[in-house]
Amino acid sequence: MAENSIDRRRFLAGAAAVGAGMYVAGNLTGTFTGSGAIAGATAVGTEGYGELVLDPDGLLDLPEGFTYSVVTRAGEHAMEGGAKSPSDPDAAGYFAASGPLGSLSGALGSLGDLVGAGGGFLVLNHEIGGSEPHIVPVTDGITFDDQAGGGCTVIAVDSKGVRKSQYVGVAGTVNNCAGGVTPWGSWLTCEETELRAGGRSLQGKTASVDHGWVFEVSPDTALNRAQAAVPLKFLGRFSHEAVAVDPATSVIYLTEDAGNPNGHVYRWTPPAGFTPGTGSLAELARSAGGDTAGTFEMMRCVSGGAHVPDLSVATTVGTTYQLEWVEVPGRDRLAETTSIRKQSYGARGTRSRKLEGAWWKEGAYIVASFARMGDGSAAEHDGQVWRIAPDGKSITLSSIFGKNPDPAADLAAGGNFDGPDNITVSPHGGVVVSEDGSGVQHVVGVNDRGQAYPIARNRVSNSEFAGPVFNEDGSVMFVSIQGDGYTFAITGPWARLAGSAGTGAGSLGTAGLGS
After folding, report:
1. Which of 26, 130, 219, 364 allows an S-S link to 43, with CB 3.0 to 4.6 Å?
2. Counting Cβ atoms within 10 Å, is residue 179 exposed (0-12), middle (13-18) or buried (19+)?
3. Buried-exposed string 203-233: b where 16+ CB fall within 10 A, e elsewhere
4. CB of 369 within 8 A of CB of 422?
């Protein structure tokens, strides 16, 4: 996410933008309801939680009645073992200790006892792949490549979001950007890279193995020693962004954040006899033929019998394409030398610039952050959100962000939202997305009636927000500012959401996905 964000801001600087930030009749063209349907759209206005109040400490502006606390900050807070909290926090998954985790043996004894009633665990990606000052430390039994500095940490928090402990979930990976939760309570963390062995992994170091994989991480260290450092090669080697897992079938949808040419959406179907559960993916990866276990396919959109080569051509909310799935024969060994999207059959799929976050809710929701003609896209926008039907046979445009006329301006000065990245469904109605756009950065809510509103504003810098996610009862929303290394816990009168039909997605507190 970080490298591409810089590219985007450079690309958009000085560009002539037309249209509104999120529009239909001026703004947002559509959004989710709790059931996944499309709601009518209206302009950005006074809906939501009201205007943002300036933070006297200059960190995070929030609506009246809301407060934040700093859960952790890179380089300041110490983890178990003495290392400092790592740089570049990104996507995160939340896991309640009241579930199966409470009976596990965790890093520090009983996980449930560690966080208390109502507490849980934030599994936090760190998108580290270069000269970041604070890396994820090499840790025995859960390190993939001791020459790399990315990975995940696990933050144990109480019911108010107060940090009780932080420890390593997986180490030795590169550019852990987004990922997704599994139905059995683990986090799939994605490497957004195609770094080969011998390439620069950290300042003064080179990777000892190829990267570009997905790994499975649990809040429980004992489980991680058996699975976290095992690359799930059957999910392909490419510049991974996020995943969404169908709880009924264990089918996994994956997004690719890449350019020259632009990336694809993929689907993995488990082999016959696969039994999902704790450790099942690592066990499959280790098995005979595990590198190519299951079926791995590329999404191909069709309209009226004709191939749709690029998602950016869709400009009307409700646009639906039929889906075909093209089997990918070169997902592992061939991908070591030729990227999947560059292989001969890549043109048969449907591409998109900046495929980002993913979320499963009665289908797989995926985000495309922006598109410009100059990056190979067929049309231009500042963000799309799509929903793949649960049966995988169609995809529908759920919302679209028009080009922001003035990314450097805040809302009151005529600016609009742009560059949606992470997405999560709010238990209070509608969805929450985080901006990784240009200029002023926000966490944005979109209620059940299609009205967009700000939840938070970055006062520290123009760095992107990352990984919004609610705890189990919806009382705390966690979110990070990546470049400044902050992870916050936000509390307040979430239930007072104005303009919402109150038909949120119910008990969703599992993951906020990044790009």
Report:
1. 26
2. buried
3. eeeebebbbbbbbbbbbbbebbebbbbbbbb
4. no
Instruction: Give me the count of residues in the chain.
Output: 515
- Tokens standing for residue 330: 């070169």
Measure the CA angle with vertex 182, ends 178 and 186; round to 5°: 80
CA 332, CA 198: separation in Å to the nearest integer? 18
Write the single-letter amino acid at 379: A
Give per-residue pLDDT as tens, 225-271: 999 999 999 999 999 999 999 999 999 999 999 988 899 999 999 99
DSSP state at residue 242:
E
CB atoms within 10 A of CB 3: 15
Q: Helix/strand/coil (H, E, C) string of 424-478?
A: EECCCCCEEEEECCCCCCEEEEECCCCCEEEEEEECCCCCCEEEEEECCCCCEEE
CA gap 178, 382 in Å, rounded: 20
Euclidean distance between CA atoms 196 and 190, whole angstroms: 16
